[in-house]
Design brief:
Blueprint: E1 5-12, E2 24-31, H1 34-43, E3 48-50, E4 56-57, E5 62-63, E6 67-69, E7 76-78, E8 82-86, H2 91-100, E9 103-104, H3 116-122, E10 135-142, E11 147-152, H4 153-156, E12 172-180, E13 182-183, H5 187-204, E14 211-214, E15 220-221, E16 224-225, H6 228-234, E17 241-242, E18 245-247, E19 254-257, H7 263-281, E20 290-291
Parallel strand pairs: 2-5, 2-6, 3-6, 4-20
Antiparallel strand pairs: 1-2, 7-8, 8-12, 9-13, 10-11, 10-12, 14-19, 15-16, 17-18, 18-19
This protein binds flavin-adenine dinucleotide.
Length: 292
């Protein structure tokens, strides 16, 4: 076995996706460091990269393509100017770490159940904040040049978009990120903000069932934004289910797994929603999720 990464065989990916879909992978590869990431791409083809699996859907029940999971890239430190976080660091751990160092600006990340790498790829955020606003630089393994390089925030700037980033359009794997760190005198107000955001989200979202967050990007018609949950509600789809996949009765913008959903159930439900919304509103919904 390589010293730079760990290999697991015949792995049930159920615990590697927040929708808790069952899917078997012949190989799950866990790099210990940047060299591990590089070696994996030398040793394997068709590698699928995942972080915490909170924005992905497995469409298959078995995969021969290897999965690279960043879980062990979990470095987290403060150097006086920046927080440096490995791509596998959970966003909640990052937010609590920032709080403990009296650093504000990370509160909105605490309740997003992703990793740093996944959040940078998806430019994760809430209505008011997106991760792009706190990035100083990102270290990636660039597959085209087969090298580890540092991308400054100015290089990333033109590519940030709504759930879009440089990383989705370039052949690279995020290794770690340097975040801007602004110290705050008011430690408790950071904590209050974090808990307030969490409470509001728990009030609205179906946290008692597995999900992968909002299914669709917010749609626009003639430049006007629409609330996705309202559209789905007006189509009479709240609570509609296919197999174990159900449109949440609490928040119709979410699909939940009521127990034994398969990837096919979820994808069939997405297609059904899209066809109804298209015929009623003339809007073609676009998934926020990455489907593998
Ligand atoms: C209950 C719930 C609430 C949510 N709320 C929000 C929210 O408020 N805002 C929001 O934006 N999202 C939200 N999400 C979605 C999700 O948590 C975010 O998109 C998150 O940032 C995804 O991170 P991840 O590590 O889980 O990525 P994954 O789901 O594992 O991967 C997502 C994409 O990122 C790529 N990727 C992951 N790591 C790397 C890496 N190191 N290098 C290159 N590519 C990589 C993967 O290949 C994939 O294309 C929510 C999800 C759930 C379940």
């Amino acid at each position: 076995m390589s010293k730079e990464y760990c290999v697991l065989n015949n792995v049930n990916l159920r615990l590697y996706n927040t929708m808790r879909l069952k899917a078997f992978a012949d190989y799950l590869l866990l790099p210990y460091n940047d060299m591990g990431v590089k070696s994996i791409f030398k040793d394997y083809n068709d590698v699928i990269v995942i972080g915490n699996g909170s924005n992905i859907i497995f469409s298959e029940s078995e995969y021969s393509s290897p999965f690279l999971c960043t879980k062990l890239l979990d470095e987290l430190e403060f150097d006086g100017n920046s927080i440096i976080a490995g791509s596998g660091v959970r966003l909640s751990d990052l937010a609590w770490f920032a709080l403990e160092k009296h650093i504000s600006g990370f509160e909105f990340l605490e309740d997003i159940p992703g990793s740093v790498g996944g959040a940078l790829s998806m430019n994760a955020g809430t209505y008011n904040d997106n991760i792009q606003n706190i990035v100083r630089s990102v270290i990636v393994y660039d597959r085209d040049s087969d090298s580890i390089i540092e991308l400054d925030s100015s290089m990333l700037l033109p590519h940030w978009g709504k759930r879009d980033s440089y990383f989705l359009h370039h052949n690279c794997i995020i290794i770690s990120c340097k975040f801007n760190a602004s110290l705050s005198d008011d430690y408790l107000s950071i904590l209050d903000k974090m808990l307030e955001i969490k409470k509001n989200r728990y009030k609205k979202q179906p946290r008692d069932y597995p999900s992968a967050g909002s299914v669709f990007k917010r749609p626009y018609l003639n430049g006007e934004p629409f609330y996705i949950w309202k559209i789905i509600d007006e189509c009479g789809l709240r609570g509609y289910s296919i197999g174990g996949a159900q449109i949440s009765t609490k928040h119709p913008g979410f699909i939940i797994n009521t127990g034994n959903a398969t990837g096919k159930d979820v994808l069939d439900l997405i297609e059904y929603i899209k066809s109804i919304v298209l015929s009623k509103y003339g809007i073609l919904l676009e998934e926020e999720w990455r489907i593998y």
